[in-house]
Amino acid sequence: MSGLIVLDYGGGNLKSVTNILDKLGYAYNLTDKKEDILESDRIILPGQGHFAQFMESLNSKGLTEALIHKINFGTPFLGICLGIQVLFEESEEAPGVKGLGIFPGKVVKFTEGKVPQIGWNELKITTNNTVLTNDYVYFVNSYHVIPENKQIISAFSNYYIDFVASIEYKNIFAFQFHPEKSGEVGFEFFRRWIEKN
């Protein structure tokens, strides 16, 4: 199987992501098979829930090594919500549980305000950005990433503090917000990412 895959790790916001792909008219394969990951030419990893459960699911299905291989090989990758957090080494949500470790850095909990933060926040894009615009998008998150390499940050947002809303590095794009729940703006982000890749 080749082409665009949406990785089914056993939970999360899969339906909302596949709905937007259906509306945009893009063909994809929803899969939880290692073989499909290895043969794919684009990968979307949607996610919501708990960091430990997410990684446990990837590991138990035997998907972790294949996913790391494809990302490091240069396959276009889009991570959403937990899909950005698991790219890093560790999270305060699950001490002792290793993430994918694609990037050095960690995931930390907001220390102010009500968590999870739920609602629309404005993006503040950086010069390292080819897909996003300064629009309002929809967030549902209690945690946010702190990359060691600040050059990969493509947008910030603010919830008591400025926090990383998205990253972009070579073949890797990842959003802390939910583009699939962000209306026409989110649709446009999906379209730009797919057409870019």
> What is the mean pLDDT?
93
**Order of helix and strand elements from N to C terminus:** EHEHEHHEHEEEEEEEEEH
The SS-based structural class is alpha/beta
Largest sheet, spatial ordering of strands: 2-1-3-4-13-12-11-8
- Predict the CATH topology: Rossmann fold
Number of strands: 13
Query: Looking at this structure, what is the CATH superfamily?
Result: Class I glutamine amidotransferase (GATase) domain
Task: Identify low-pLDDT runs.
Answer: none
Percentage of residues in DSSP E strands: 25-35%
Outline the biggest β-sheet. 8 strands, mixed
Q: Just give the CATH class.
A: Alpha Beta
Shape: globular
CATH architecture tag: 3-Layer(aba) Sandwich
How many structural domains can be distinguished in the coordinates? 1
Work out the radius of gyration: 15 Å
How many helix segments? 6
What does this entry look like structurally?
With 197 residues, the chain is an alpha/beta fold. It has one domain (4-196): Rossmann fold, CATH 3.40.50. It contains six helices and 13 strands. It has helices at 14-24, 34-39, 51-60, 64-73, 82-85, 183-196, and strands spanning 4-7, 29-31, 42-47, 77-81, 90-91, 105-109, 117-122, 124-125, 136-141, 143-147, 153-159, 161-169, 172-175. Strands 2-1-3-4-13-12-11-8 form an eight-stranded mixed beta sheet. A three-stranded mixed beta sheet has the order 5-6-10, with no helix packed on it. A hairpin with a 2-residue loop joins strand 12 and strand 13 (172-175). The longest helix has 14 residues, at 183-196. The protein is globular.
